[in-house]
Amino acid sequence: MAPWSSDLMDCFQSVKPELESDFTPAAYNKLLNTLFPVNTPYTVFPQVHRHEEFTNVTARTTFTVYFKSTPVFLLDLHSYPTLSRISAREAADDHMRLHVRDLMPYCPLTTLHAVCAFGTRLAFYSASAGEAIHPARAPAPEQHQDSTPADWWDCDLLEDDGAIRLLIWVFLIHVAGIYLFTRGFLLTRLSLSNTSTCSEPNCGIVPTHKRAVLLIIDSLRFDFVSPNPPTPESPFHHNVLTLPQELTAKHPRHSFIFNSYADPPTTTLQRIKGITTGSLPTFVDLGNNFGGSSIAEDSILKQLKQAGKKLAFMGDDTWMSVFPDTFEPNMRFPYDSFNVEDLHTVDEGVIRHLFPLLEDASKPFDFLIGHFLGVDHVGHRVGPDHPSMKAKLQQMNDVLTQVVDLLEEDTLLVVLGDHGMDRSGDHGGDGTLETSAGMWIYSKGAPLTDPSPRVPGGLLQYKTFPGANSRHRSIQQIDLLPTISLLLGVPIPFNNLGTVIPELFWRGNRIQTLKKALEVNTVQIMKYLDTYRSSPSGGELDEAWQNIQGAWRATQNPGLSVDSELVTFMNFNRVALSACRAMWAQFNPVLMGLGLILLGMGLCASWAVYSGLWDARKEWDSWISPRLSHAVHVAAGGAISGIVGYFTLGPFTPGVAAADWAIFVGSLVSSMALITSSPPKMDFQTLKSIPVILLLHSVAFLSNSFTFWEDRIICFLLMTSLVPYVLTGISAPSTRLRYRILGFSLLFAVCVRLMATSTICREEQQPYCHVTFFASSSLPEPPRLVLYLSIPVAIALPLFFKRVLHITRADSGLAGTFLSLFLTPALLGGALYWIMEWADSAAVFGEEWAAPLRLSRTWVARSSFAWMAIVGIGLCLVVPLCLDIEVTTEGEKRQVKIVGYANAFGSPYLLFWSTSFALVYICTQLTGQVVLALAAIALVSFLELLDSVRDARGIQAAFESSTPSSVLNAAASLRLSPPIRFADVVPIALLGLHSFYATGHQATISSLQWKSAFLLTPTVTYPFSVITVVLNSVGPIFIFALAVPLVAVWNRAPLSTAEGQPAKDLDVQVKGESTLAALGVMIYYSALLLGTSFSAAILRRHLMVWKVFAPRFMAAVLELLAVDVGVLLGLGIGLERITWRVRTMFGARASTTAQTAQ
């Protein structure tokens, strides 16, 4: 319903409708006298009808509104509790029809409108001369059931707009599905930046080595180095890399081979973090420095660096992203790691720099890391059972042989795989083959263990590799970290959860050495857990804390035997590891499945509602209100059922809380209620309307190639979406429409293609992508052409808006003032800020100008942002219409013209939209500003194109209806013009995505433009830095979601003068079509989210899951939320304000018949 004044609403809300005797017509009396003031020719005549048996009880109250002495409106009021009685509804219907029939002969209007009210629930009646009263009575077969169903009174005076409630419902379903899926897929933990120290030198343990060489052979599965490989043996990867087993057999005190368990996700970046920090890294482990990818936690490299050691590196350049400043400048040699088809470049680069460092005493190192990639690339390209794998493993065997020959006796050699690979050569998941990595530790000099007597068996774990005939010694991969730390004499890193390898401390005074190592290890882990528990995320440990405390107390028991004491230390470490692993490092398929089901059902429900609204057309509000109310009611019951079901299903669904079940069941039954109440028709017309572009776009996420080339694909889809309009233009019934359709199509296509020339390349696109968003890939500054264009573009864009508005003469009034005095200065300020930022960064005027430029550009940005955010938006809300009055006098005849009338809804909404556009524009770098200007031109071009296409289709429909004369009737043309189709919002949805990519973004964290965080403040300041980064990142998506109502309101006049259509009716039509458009774009983005979620779930073991699929899923989440917020703000604030003002201005149409619309 329309927004009433607060005192009027208070009057209604103060009534107690549940008590019949308490209900009073005073609120309606006040409402009617507000709508028909006493200083007008209208008179409100109330009449009270008493109950036949109880004369002190009011049965009903009738209000008749007279214009002078003739009736024009009727309201029949009944008490709310009686609505549930069939007899009361039938009696009210009989009274209303009788009264309308009696008044109709005296009504001066062609149609008499009436309202039957039960409390605040309303049913609308109307009658025209010679026609039956609407709504019609129930057909005869239903007379014995209920001829006046309660859902006739489906409109509540106190309820919010059905459109907003519907969109909020869709938004909440999206949030529920995202929440559940994310809980099962994106693994999180708190990163602590504490650093370990030891009170004793070398932590009380004599180090065995001064230096170490750590060689990582990427994807080195355990069976590749196992002395007892599984059967049947493969000639391509079994007993090929034989040096480890040969030296272990020959020197058992100096050499050890382990089957190490690599915690999933089994990807290189995550395993590097695990190997160096001893923790269980997860995909969303952003650390303390959100803006970078470097490791903020304590690590062995950090400990060595603090100890004054020199660190060398060569190989996979991933190490440089996580440890950018750790290695010596003259001893670091990174190589690109992504080109899977290149089997040798990285390995040859490692070999080229490794041996000179081992041979050259003038370049001493203390810790050397070499990361070979050839085995991994062979696995991805051809799999492990291929001659190329045998050749690569033979090469690695030769390299290790030469390394051992060159190794000094004080240098420890560690060779390991960061993870394994499955049978096809891929990795990333938690399969046994993927998590089984080989590890070889070798000391050329000092022995690592004393084999007699043997280490207590309770400290050792063995595992049988799939297909093997015997067990082999097994450890956790993170056990390497505390082991190598103590062997080199540095503290164990603070976040470590690994346990020292007992064999390597079973030497000298064996029991005391091993006990001291385990004790230092245990104290370090307990200190970490205590710190984590006292952190904001400490509640995650609540469930396991009792077991952890029990295991810790066992280590403090002085009465244990020596062997038992060692076992209690080991047991505590493993209990702690198990507790943390349960929290952080496992997918929860149940939660992921529940989330996927919700996203899928929500999408189906949204499509069903979309189809139902499309069929309901003008009666959309009355169609959706009862269905939505029912869906909300069953959601409450479903949530309760979910909590009850938790106590039954809880034991079978670990990790799924009662709240999760309540959210899932409540949302599921709510979606199903909407689907069952509005099932879409399955006919040829429905099948024809299936959005093929959306289907192609959604399934493309199952391919990693399509995913990281999505920016190019969207451009193709956008151009494809124009084809139906071009075909319509070719066959348009008039030359003017043909030129307009083809001309605006061409302008739209040119803008889209120009936008596509702005690119930012993600790693996977190399070498087939060239950066154009910046001057070069290594120089993050705008291209010179963009610098020259930025100011002219900022001036030209408002002029373009004004020129388009001039087509319907909507460029006067507020439009002229706003575009000249508000939008233009804001855009110029945004361009000037980034020009000054470039001048500062490039030191164009020298270092002495840095401080003045910094201060000046900050105030320019603040002024521009505030000018638009406060003054501009405020002006659009206070004076929302772009109308002007022209009074002309010809002789004695005076004519009043409303200028801008033909676009009374669209022009003010364009100004409202441009306020948000300007805010995003200010937060966007110069190349992105030019792109956004092109996108805005494309948007307006599409609106004009769509308006002409509708005209053409309306005229064609008129001819096809065998009444070609109706083409000359404006009202009939409007009536025959087809409503919004789903295909009409597809270009808008794609334009938002195209703008996102063309403004320098990708579905990667590295593409975030952190410069925008300093737009309003010289340092990171919350919440301003967050706001500007968000606007920079998802702003393009948001503004095109906000623009969706323009599809419905562009070039839409308030009244249909030929038919005398009241303003309220067209208000309903505008809102209904705007709701369709908004729902359409929400459907598009929710389908993309479903596609990315599904691909991330089923491909969670894929090589690219954490590099491609998971980031795209996260981007889809942010995009959908931005769309939801955009359409809610657009319909709830922008369009609501405009339609209210239009309704207020044109509501009294009968008194303005002398006005001529132009």
From TrEMBL:
GO CC entries: endoplasmic reticulum membrane
Glycoprotein among keywords: yes
Gene Ontology terms: biological process: GPI anchor biosynthetic process
InterPro entries: Alkaline_phosphatase_core_sf, Phosphodiest/P_Trfase, PIG-O_N, PIGG/GPI7_C, PIGO/GPI13
Transmembrane segments: 166-186, 590-610, 631-649, 655-675, 687-707, 713-732, 785-801, 813-836, 865-886, 898-922, 928-946, 1013-1031, 1076-1098, 1113-1135
Organism for this UniProt entry: Gymnopilus dilepis
Domain GPI ethanolamine phosphate transferase 2 C-terminal: 989-1133
Protein name from the UniProt record: GPI ethanolamine phosphate transferase 2 C-terminal domain-containing protein
Family affiliation: Belongs to the PIGG/PIGN/PIGO family. PIGO subfamily.
Entry membrane topology: Multi-pass membrane protein
This protein's pathway: Glycolipid biosynthesis; glycosylphosphatidylinositol-anchor biosynthesis
Main location per the UniProt record: endoplasmic reticulum
Compartment(s) of residence: Endoplasmic reticulum membrane
Superkingdom, natural source: Eukaryota
Cited Pfam families: Phosphodiest, PIGO_PIGG
UniProt KW Acyltransferase keyword: no
